[in-house]
Every structure is written in C-alpha cells, then in structure tokens.
Design goal:
Shape of chain B: globular
CATH topology of one domain in chain B: MetI-like fold
Helix content of chain B: over 70%
CATH class of one domain in chain B: Mainly Alpha
CATH class of chain A: Mainly Alpha
Number of helices of chain B: 13
CATH superfamily of one domain in chain B: MetI-like
Largest sheet of chain B: 2 strands, antiparallel
Largest interface: A-B, 88 and 84 residues
Radius of gyration of chain B: 23 Å
CATH topology of chain A: MetI-like fold
Structural class of chain B: mainly alpha
Number of helices of chain A: 11
Number of strands of chain B: 2
Oligomer: heterodimer
C-alpha cells in the first residue's frame, strides 16, 4: 500500500517547481522574442536606426527611431533635474523631522503615489499643464515623469538615510556641526550608495513609462529635440513610439517598434546591472 | 546654514511632494463633477457609449468598469498560484547549498518587475494573443462552450481573457515580493515546531502558508490594484470594444485602456473628457483602497515568537 503522505508530498513538490518555473518562463520568451525580432531590425537599419526618423508608413523603407531616442534621453535628463532634488529634499525632511505632522503626511502621501495608476498622472499633467500651455511638450512629459519618479526615489533614499546609525549624527553634533552640515556632509555621505540606488531606480522606472506620456508630449515623430528650446515643443519617446507603432498595420512601423523595444530593454537592463554591481540587495 | 534656513530649504519640497496627491484628487474630482451632474448613477450603470459632436453624448462606464474588474480578478487568480509556488520554491525547495540558484531566480523575478510594461504589451499583442487565440480559446470554445464564460466564438486573440493572462504575468512578481517578505519573517521556532512533528514538506508548507495568510491577502489586493491600473499593455491586447465581459473569449474594454484610447481626442466631444476623468477618479479610488486594505492586512502579520 502506497504511503499517501509521501505521494502527496512528491506531487506537491513537483507541482510547485513546475509552477515556479512557469512564473519566470514568460521572461525568457519575452527577452528571446525582443532580441530576435528587435535585433534583426537594428542590424538591418544599422546606424541609421539610431539616427533617422521613421520612414513613411507602409513604404519598404525602415528609417529609424532617432527623434524618439533623443526624446527619451532628454526626458530622462529633465525629469532627473526636476525629480531628483525634489525627492532628495523630501526624503531628508521626512527623516529629519520624522516626529512632525508634515513629515508623516509627506511619507504617506508620497508613498501612496506608488499606487496611483500612472495614466492618471498623465491625465493630471494634461489638465493642469498641457491645456493652459495650449500644446504638448517634452517639458510637460518631464513633469509627469518626475511625479512618477518621486515615490520610488523618496522611499529608497528615506530608507538609506534611516539606516545611518545614530552615533554618526551625534558625533557630528558633538563637534558643533549644524543640522544642515550633519545631513549634507555626514548622513548623505554615509548613505551615498543608497541615495545613488534610489536615483538610478527612479530613472529606470521613468524611462520605461508609457502612460504618463500619452497625453503630455504629443508624438512629434520627425523633429529632433536639439536643445533646451525644444523642451517647449512636442516630442517623442521610445515607449510611446512602441505603443503607437504596435497598433498600426504597417510592417515597417511594427519593425521599428520591435527595434525600439530591444533598445529600451537594453537601457533598462543596463541600469539594472549597474545597480546590481554597485549594491547587493536591490529591489526594483 | 542655520536650523531655520535648513528647514526653509527642505520644507517646501516636502509640501510640494505631499500636495501632488491632493492636487490629483481635487483636479480629477473637479473635472468629474460635470459628468456626475449630467449622468448621475448612469455613469456607473449604463453600458451605452455614444459620442456626439457638438452636444453631450450618452456615456456610461459600466462596460469598461466590468472589464477592469474581470481582467484584474482573472489576473490575481492566475498569478496567485504562480507567486506562492515561487515563494515555496525559493524558500523551501531549493536546497540551502544552491545559494546561487536562489539568487538567480530572485534576479529573474526582479527583472520581470523592472521590465517596461510596454514590452509586455508588445509581446502580448504579437505573441501571446495569437498563440492563445489559435490554441486555448479554440479548445475552450469547442469543449467547454456550455459554460457561459466560454460560450462566444473567439475571433481574435485580443480578448478580456488575454488581458487577464498578460496582467497575471506582470503582477506575479509583485505578489511574490509581498508574500516572500512576510514568509521569511515567520520565526524560526514556529518552523522548528512544525518540523518536529514530523511533517512532510507539503504539510509543513501548508502550516507556514496558513501563518502567512494575511500577507497572501495583502499580495492579492496589491496585485489587484496594479492590474486595475495597468494601461498600455492592456490597451494592446484587450480588443478595445464596447462589449460586456460576460464571455471571456470576446474583446472588451477596461477603464484605463478606454482613457488611453480616447482621452487625447475627448475634448472634441462635450462632456466626454469629464466622463473619462471620472473613470480615472474611480481608478484612483480603487488603487488607493486596495493599497490601504493591503497594508492593513500586512500589519496583522505579527509573529510573536
């Protein structure tokens, strides 16, 4: 007579392993598909894939994703210029005045932003920035993305600052440093790795977001944002291009979507790898 | 820098950061009001969507709301076994010696969390939807069509079920993270007590999962919130058709995909923008509510050793 407890145990173990492998299997299929389909497109396009605007839809030509790539880089830069100082100073306030009411409100309200669907942030920026300005712009997109970045970077930096042992602060105060000096010279110095991780995670999140851009940057497929004056003009970004081109029936535009997907995935994986190299335990 | 000037430097950013959520709520509410005044409860209860240029059309959010709920519930139901199995796999089944394997597995889950949602969407539309449409859906319809959920003839792979499956893949890492964190906090003494009874692994895991139950519920709620708010990936696979999701093999709509598709041009139609914003307000409330409930469950996980 079989030992039912053992049989059940074996079955359970086998099913668990199978389900766990099934959970990560899509990752490999996605990465393989993106590398194969995107890779062949990028190889076909060569350098012009990175520099040219998309070719005419339905034409045999491929063109490239130059304006979208440049737009994504601009968005990353401007978003960081807005979002990083805002997040760092907010996190410092939350940690330094942790007993105060504003600190508690700031902690709860910023972390709640994490649960807000990002499309609503696009909606908000459309209503309060795009409509009054009368046009889509990369600047509006950057504001939306800075809001998306905020909760990630604040919570990470906050934890890094909290992790600095109290003795270091006390040492700082004991030699007559002001609070500002303790924060910026002692605490931030000790927590610098955690702070850097928070910024990198924020940037990675922001570069991969699509929904906040839907109603904010427009989709200026042909123009290159060359300088700060372009920020007030409509622009394009890789995720937005993928979303819109994937819905078109034109094969050359769908090819560009796959190429852009590979490019975007590589950018995100590069940031992820950098984080892994710099820090041991990192949660995206 | 004096204390007062330091505070003057860090307080305004803290105020700005806190104000964003408040501003979001106020703006969404403000733009929703005209729609609420015009349509009242019909906004939630009416399945009609008839845009009219130059006059208020007939708008009800019933179908997209149902689509959001159905796709998010499917996602949680499918993701939960995957997430729990992954927790058991990394915490109990992989032998202690295979540390690198565990790290590798956790890294994969982390990459899944970080992978851009638009990449999931592109893959979902080009690979997953046709695959499911040609195989699973045909089979479900031919052999299980007596169940109302599978009674409609599948025409394409872009259906509410595909949205649910894709969302399940996307939220599994989130549920995994919530449950694993809590599972690891179960005190050693409990584990040893269970093992000392001579439990098999299956019996042991059942006891442990019982203890982590609040975290599992929290994971389900947080996963639900994520799934309900996801936009672009769903918009690419859900079919974007005003169709009650009573049959899972037909295309439908979700609130977020409706917003993604219609919001940019909504200003051309009187009140359409307001109706879409009120849909956004509902999404905001779903997101916040599921998160608050989730955190409340998580607080209940307090192991006294």
């Amino acid at each position: 007579m079989p030992d039912w407890r053992r049989v059940k145990d074996r079955l359970f173990t086998a099913a668990t392993v199978a389900l766990a492998l099934l959970a990560v299997a899509p990752l490999f299929h996605i990465l393989a598909t993106v590398v194969v389909r995107g890779g062949s497109v990028i190889l076909r396009g060569g350098v012009s894939f990175f520099t040219d605007p998309p070719a005419y839809p339905g034409s045999g030509e491929l063109g490239g994703v130059g304006p979208a790539l440049l737009g994504t880089l601009w968005l990353g830069l401007v978003t960081s210029l807005i979002g990083v100082p805002l997040a760092l100073l907010t996190a410092i306030y939350i940690v330094e005045y942790r007993e105060g009411r504003l600190a508690r409100v700031a902690r709860v309200f910023t972390s709640s932003l994490l649960e807000v669907p990002t499309v609503l942030i696009g909606m908000l920026v459309f209503l309060v920035v795009v409509v009054p300005m009368g046009r889509y712009s990369l600047a509006a997109g950057s504001i939306a993305l800075a809001i998306v970045m905020l909760p990630y970077t604040v919570s990470y930096v906050e934890r890094a600052l909290e992790g600095v042992p109290r003795t270091y602060r006390e040492a700082g105060y004991s030699i007559g440093m002001t609070r500002a000096q303790v924060v910026f010279q002692v605490v931030m110095g000790i927590a610098s790795r955690g702070v850097a991780a928070g910024i990198l995670i924020g940037v990675a999140k922001v570069l991969s977001e699509t929904a906040p851009l839907l109603f904010t940057i427009g989709s200026a497929r042909g123009s290159y944002p060359t300088g700060p004056q372009s920020l007030l003009e409509p622009g394009d970004a890789l995720p937005l291009l993928i979303f819109q081109f994937a819905q078109t029936p034109y094969s050359n535009w769908q090819d560009l979507a796959w190429g852009a997907a590979l490019l975007l995935t590589l950018i995100i994986l590069a940031i992820f790898t950098l984080l892994r190299l710099l820090f041991r335990e990192v949660k995206l | 820098m004096s204390e007062a000037r330091f505070k003057l430097l860090v307080a305004p950013p803290a105020i700005v950061s806190s104000a964003i959520l408040v501003l979001l709520f106020i703006v969404l509410l403000y733009y929703s009001l005209p729609a609420i005044r015009e349509y009242g409860l019909g906004l939630l209860a009416s399945p009609t969507w008839k845009p009219v240029e130059g006059a208020p059309g007939e708008y009800g959010l019933l179908i997209p709301l149902a689509g959001t709920l159905v796709s998010a519930v499917i996602a949680v139901l499918l993701a939960m076994p995957l997430a729990l199995a992954s927790v058991v796999f990394t915490e109990e089944i992989l032998p202690r010696g295979l540390h690198r394997w565990r790290e590798a597995f956790v890294s994969m889950i982390d990459v899944m969390t970080g992978l851009p949602t638009i990449v999931y969407g592109l893959w979902g539309a080009a690979v997953l939807a046709p695959l499911l449409g040609d195989t699973l859906y045909k089979w479900l319809h031919s052999s299980l069509s007596f169940i109302p959920l599978f009674s409609c003839q599948p025409t394409t792979g872009n259906t509410i079920l595909t949205a649910g499956v894709l969302l399940a893949i996307m939220i599994t890492p989130f549920i995994y993270a919530v449950v694993r964190e809590s599972y690891r906090q179960i005190p050693r003494t409990y584990k040893e007590a269970a093992l000392s009874l001579g439990t098999t692994r299956y019996e042991y895991v059942r006891i442990m999962m019982g203890m982590a139950k609040p975290a599992i519920l929290a994971g389900a709620l947080i996963g639900f919130g994520r799934a309900a708010g996801e936009t672009v990936a769903v918009a690419l696979v859900v079919g974007n058709t005003f169709n009650m999701p009573s049959c899972l093999l037909a295309p439908s709509y979700t609130v977020s995909s409706l917003i993604a598709n219609q919001f940019a041009n909504a200003q051309l139609y009187p009140l359409m923008l307001n109706v879409l914003v009120s849909g956004g307000l509902i999404l905001l409330l779903i997101g916040i509510a599921s998160n608050i409930l989730g955190i409340m469950y998580l607080r209940r996980v307090r192991y006294v050793a």
